Amino acid sequence: MFLNILTKGRCCSRNKRTFPCGKILQDHASKIKNNIILMGSPGCGKTTVGRILATALGRPVLDIDDDHLEPHWGMPVAQKLDEVGSDGFVEAEGQALTALRADNCVVSLTGSNPMHDAGMSHVTRTGTVVFLDVHMTDILERLERMKVNRIVGQNDGTDMADILKYRQQFYEKWYDTRVICERNESPQSIADKVIARLRKADAKEGYVSTRGLHMGNKGFNDVLLQGLAPDGGLIVPQNEFPKMSLGQLARLVDLSYPERAVRILEQWIDHRDLHPEVLKSAINKAYNKETFESDTICPVRHLEGDQFIQELFHGPTASFKDVALQLMPQLFMNAVIEGKSSQKYLILVATSGDTGGAVLDGFTRHARNSRAKTGLLILYPLNGISDIQRDQMISYNSDIARVVGVSGSDFDFCQTNVKKVFGDEDLAQKLQHEHSLRISAANSISWGRLLPQVVYHVTSYLDLVKQKVINLGDEIDLCVPTGNFGNILAAYYAKGMGVPFKKLICASNTNNVVTDFITSGCYDITSRRLLQTISPAIDILVSSNLERLLYSISDNDSSITSNAFTQLRDRRKFEVPMHILENIRNTFHADWCSEEDCAKSMRKTLKTSDYLLDPHTSVAKAVADGFKSERPMVIAATAHPGKFAHDVLKIFGSATNKMAPTEMLHALGNISARPAVHQSLLNTLKKQTGERIVCDASYDSVIKQIECFVDKI
Ligand SMILES: *Cc1c(COP(=O)(O)O)cnc(C)c1O
């Protein structure tokens, strides 16, 4: 058996492709042939899997070693190697690859083909490159078993494992779709996975509205730009959830957050919509030392007993919204460039504090230098958010971002008027006609914001496995402070993928409409008023993403969903059928806590665990304590306490009236070192230089704000 493993340092990546770059996708979109191209390490099973696939699909198989290189050179591969030496071999082999003319075949590449750029540029255009991602230990064992004793590149004493590791970067660079193989998986089973993956891509059923409208041939990028479906529903994929087996999840346990994110999101996004290479580059820019203050991005820590806390607040603006909004703007800008590039966008956001900051940071950091022109207009209730949240947001005022406080208004007013702008056809036409500009959203109804959240729920489970708290396959519970239902819905999607979450627990404050709904099946806001609490991000009457849950849990029954939400609009209440309620209650549990209990739970947690919770997380902790769990439970910490320093300090009896925001953060740090003072929040507040822009609470004033800003975009 001959295996062409070559020396390190021979082939480095020339013309490295960059992001964002429309050209990449065009390359990948313009496949000129229909081969299935298997790629991966020597010993990963390409040849055997290739034969099985070819038989199953009724296609010819073409092994690059035997069926292409030998005839092309007119000599055995080993002889060629002797002739050109190991240094010249990759070049010779790559050159030969550029002469490949096969179509409709199953092609098994050699292990070293991916090290040649020109050869691979050619071959990737002839079909779909499938990366058989096999665990390194399995490969080493197989090579051992096959008694591979002649390895090119080992003559300088390089360890086989090092050579294989070095090769990985080339496989990572060229694949269209990755098949994560389980440990010791049989070739037949791997071939089945490949077929399932290709079938799924072929079916490409696209996206639908929860109210029934099919989105036609709109792909991931269109859906990102669109926001809401035209029938008023939320957009979801039509295919069922992508699944990951426990064996596949096991492969992610030892990986970093970005590496896990790539593998999880690839399952959800067709490579023809968003190529893995583009996705990977965006993920690496989103989750790193510059953006997150924790090496592990969303670390899971022990709290007490069987309770663990996942800290989702290490991003630049100190709430969990950063996790989605460091990634989503990059995907959004890529979608703009993929589409009509002269189109400008205005992202219009109503915020009760946390979304605004995260949108501003995400877009300013990652979209500023993009070719696509996009502006941000953020509306917040002038006196309805914390001073720290306000100072944080206005520090982002810039040529592309405008943060406006609406005087005499509350969040509901801002939200309602933003929705009115989205529905204003005359305005839309005028903006398109005069400015080539469309208005778009970045709130949690956006599919592009929901998806990145699935990742951290999967990783919380993997982290517990890694910490040996549980064995892979054991069930855990999860408790989330819930407002718009985005965060917990993402957990439901993670469960749908195969992550063993048992109960998903929604925690509310005194605005407990979701608790009532999950208890009774009746969503009723006829006599509810929004109550102001110290956990403002979950002060909510209409929990938008519940619509996506209802759709999924009723087996994608758009008539049930559509009825429910039409009734909610017209009569301010709806009730779901008993069997739907049962389905919901099989997975979900809900409870709420009073303001007083929230404060109590914060004090108690400091005492028992020396840990300072923010008010939202404290709501979740209070609810978690009231739930009799028989399993380990993760509590989602959605914000850093520093963001709500004023209220938190008050709960601990400190007078804050003379304190500057930065002093408040330090004062919190003195109460407990867990979690550490949020440095990026501190720095933002230190250099606060933003201008305060105010407008009054009328639709006309909001429109005026839009009109005077669009000129600048
Ligand atoms: C936005 C937010 C929530 C609510 O999240 P949903 O996805 O809307 O349920 C909870 N806590 C904090 C701190 C938030 O900023």
Overview of this protein structure:
It is a single chain. Helix 22 runs antiparallel to helix 23. The protein is globular and about 85 Å long. Strand 8 (300-304) and strand 9 (307-311) form a beta hairpin. It is of the alpha/beta class and 713 residues long. It contains 30 helices and 20 strands. Strands 8-9-19-14-15-18 form a six-stranded mixed β-sheet, with helices on both faces. The chain binds pyridoxal-5'-phosphate. Pyridoxal-5'-phosphate (PLP) is lined by residues 319, 321, 354, 444, 481-487, 537-538, 616, 638-639.
Q: SSE layout and pairings?
A:
Elements (H helix, E strand, L loop, with lengths): L21 H8 L5 E5 L6 H12 L3 E3 H10 L3 H21 L8 E3 L8 H8 L2 E7 L2 H10 L14 H15 L2 E4 L6 H17 L3 E3 L10 H7 L8 E3 L8 H5 L6 H12 L7 H11 L13 E5 L2 E5 L9 H5 L2 H11 L5 E7 L3 H14 L6 E8 L5 H8 L6 E7 L3 H12 L2 H11 L1 E4 L6 H20 L9 E6 L4 H12 L3 E8 L4 H8 L1 E3 L21 H8 L4 H14 L1 E3 L2 H10 E5 L2 H15 L5 H12 L6 E5 L7 H7 L9 H11 L7 H8 L6 E4 L2 H12 L3
Parallel strand pairs: 1-3, 1-4, 2-3, 4-5, 9-19, 10-11, 10-13, 11-12, 12-20, 14-15, 14-19, 15-18
Antiparallel strand pairs: 6-7, 8-9, 16-17
The structure holds pyridoxal-5'-phosphate.
